[in-house]
Amino acid sequence: MSNKSIMDKGRQYIMNTYGRIPIALVKGEGSRVWDADGKEYLDLVGGIAVCALGHAHPELTAVLRDQSEKLWHCSNLYWIEPQVELAAKLCQSTGMDKAFFANSGAEANEGAIKLARKYFYRQGQNRYQIIACRNSFHGRTTGALAATGQTKYQQGFEPLLPGIEFAEFNNLESVKALLTDKTCGILVEPIQGEGGVNPATVEFMTGLKRICQETGALLMLDEVQCGVGRTGDMMAFQYYGITPDIVTLAKGLGGGFPIGALLATDEAASGFGPGDHASTFGGNPLGCAVAHRVVEIISEPDFLAQVKNISDYMQEKLEQIVLKNNRASGLRGRGLLLGIEFSAEVKDLVDICRGNGLLLLSAGPRVLRFVPPLNITESEVDEALNRLEQSLQDWK
């Protein structure tokens, strides 16, 4: 089928919930993808930070094939060996103690909200308030949506889950002003991805940890986009020298296979008992087998060192591009979650890049976002940024 035939059939049968780009991707290998008409692209979107090891990574396809010949699915009423192995590997590589598996980042964040509230309920305390941040994004399900600090995603879905208040990101005084004896948790992204690639400051993150230690509230970090090696550390929170009570993962965890995870300390995890939370497909053998290999690869010190090296290389090249473009106001982010802010909206620039064989996306109206595979090479970075520079010249 061609791009056009796939799009025509899709418009007939698929709900209109996405502003879809007018191509149909049918094949991927490493940092490259091809559409149904055979056009090749360098993919610096990767499913929005999902394809952490690129497309069709041979070790992941081998693991998936092997597991598919053993066991596809069984209920969480039974112990599942690949799930147990993944939980152990995740906890050992992140410093957390317990894991719960879901299918997505939104599900993981729903679980985090439930866990924080149930933790205090079990202690006989009526603490339910969650403090989140403005400009945040935590998912599309009703609870995660209520904790998302962008009204454009919430309109038309009211009334939202009550008990969630919004502070200013990177503003400790704003957080303190919302604290009450009902506060059970503070939910924050170490780097706001959808909100514009905004990294939290060291002062903000360490201050949140201190607030939680003083008040007993749980520190909940959403690392759905910035975790699992994306920043050059296994977890983004490691950069700040803190350990959260709860952390959520998804996207790159499965390298493209759907899986999410909720990690917690032993103390925080004690909030859940049998029957408190569940997921039919969460932690299924296929997803866990693939994710286990992803975590094995990414958690290696040499691999993380290479992520930092290629990030330094890419940032240096991007900073040169920013200096040469009078509409670019700066580069921000960390690791391989980067954004360039422009003085104009970047929608047309994204389209021009696609025409030049480069897939990028925005983060808000004026930020161009870069979330390439963590194993992208210097030569691929050079090729991608050459296409970006051509696109900037074409952007009128």
Walkthrough of the structure:
- This protein is an alpha/beta fold and 396 residues long.
- It folds into two domains: 3-57 and 301-394, Aspartate Aminotransferase, domain 1 (Alpha-Beta Complex), CATH 3.90.1150.10; 59-298, Aspartate Aminotransferase, domain 2.
- It is built from 14 helices and 17 strands.
- It has helices at 3-13, 46-49, 58-68, 81-94, 105-122, 142-146, 151-154, 172-178, 202-215, 266-269, 285-298, 301-324, 347-355, 378-394, and strands at residues 25-29, 32-35, 40-43, 98-102, 129-133, 164-167, 183-188, 191-192, 198-199, 218-222, 246-249, 260-264, 328-334, 337-342, 358-359, 361-362, 367-370.
- It has a seven-stranded mixed β-sheet with strand order 4-12-11-10-7-5-6, with helices on both faces. It has a four-stranded mixed β-sheet with strand order 1-2-3-15.
- Helix 13 (347-355) crosses helix 14.
- The longest helix is centred in the C-terminal third of the chain and has 24 residues, at 301-324.
- The protein is globular, with a radius of gyration of 21 Å.
- The two termini are 34 Å apart.
